[in-house]
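A note from the maintainers: we've had questions about how concatenated examples are separated. There is no special marker in the raw files; a new sequence line simply starts the next protein. For clarity in this README we add a label.
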Amino acid sequence: MALPSLRNLGLDKLRITNLDTRKHFDVMFNPTSYSLDDSNTWEQQKRVRVKPELQFTAQNLKKISMELFVDTYETSMTGRPDDVREHTDKMAKLMEVSFDTGDGGRPPLLALSWGKANHTSDFPPKVVLESLKTEYILFTRKGLPVRAKMSVTFLEFVDLDSEQKGKPRQKSFPWQRYTTTGGESLSGIAARFWRQPTRWRLIAEANNIDNPRLLPAGITLRIPAVN
């Protein structure tokens, strides 16, 4: 993917907003690049004497990674540089458990915005800070840190309630294919896919099976989608 440049984004600063408190801060220096990791999960369904069939099982959450630079040595207006941790601590606090959900606490939900690179493009509407690595690389003679690099990774946050309200109801378990291995029963297969062995009749009807106890090895079954 093409990476954004400062020319395209003008002088706008990357802004990080705490959605729980509605407070925000801008980074000191914009990142020179960021990476976007988006993936799906596929599983191999084994078949007898032939190559396995790929079965789509899930969409994974997006990850956005970048490196941020913080410097109080060159940017000091007084000639006496400040402790750079006054800036890095802002990011570190986003890793702390600060919001009570009722079922336990969690770190804050965040929103990223940077000029036109907001949630209409690469940035999801909500993210969390998954990982943070801070490296202090310059100190004063008295050991005061005045320059640092922060490697940060934001992980997409999906609000299940909002997602269900905004999308039509879908099957909880999508249809799949399964190749028998021998010594199995339809109730056992129903338990394996749906954790509900009593729904074995749905598999029997989908595959025109009259005797659910006679399942030879090597036959491919259609596992229907269910709620």
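[label: protein 2]
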Amino acid sequence: MNILLLVLLISISLFGSKFKIMTEDLPPQNYLDKKGELKGFSVEVVNLILKRLGYNDEKIEVVPWSRGIATLESEPNAILFSMAFTPERAEKFKLVYPMAIAKTYFFTHKDSKVKITDIDDAKKYKQGVVKDFSQHKNLIKEGFTDFDFSPDVETMVQKAIFKRVEVISLIPFQLYSEEFTHLDVKSLKKIDLSYTESKHTIGFNRAFPDSEIKKWQIELDKIKASGEFDRIFKKYVKE
């Protein structure tokens, strides 16, 4: 028997909980609301899959992204979402996807004189990003080197609103999430240039049996095909 799989089975028998499920605080996919309750369209989808598979005792833990990735690599019963698909992650983990498919755009203040028609134009401006997020890594791959780092998406958006950074990168549904309704997001404009498209996944440690991954994929596919995903998504995104 595979050693990692054996460790997984032992951990289940010892601790009762079948999985260690983690997410980060990143609205509107997954976040803690003002009452400390875990919300988000990805959270609802994962909870729905758990319910349909009969896993009624599982809890989702909110952790910093760096810790989540490290745990996903090291613990055989670990699950982490929402994770942007990359070829590297597909090699390292087992993935169920897509929960959402999203394009990343540049945004600037509506009063800004920033002019961007292609990637080379965008490189003329300091880019507001959350360090080590997929947008940051994708910009590095495109040859960007000048960044203004924020600890989270909300801080990054506030900097753009108050003109403390000229250009930021994010997925539009992040900007229009219900968690950002207290911000003057209408003061920002989207530049009609998308530089990457991401598929959001549920990541599993490679010790998970393929049969388990298949069950999760089947349930996600059903949720997408039935229109349930669209209904859930619209609860959190008010474009």
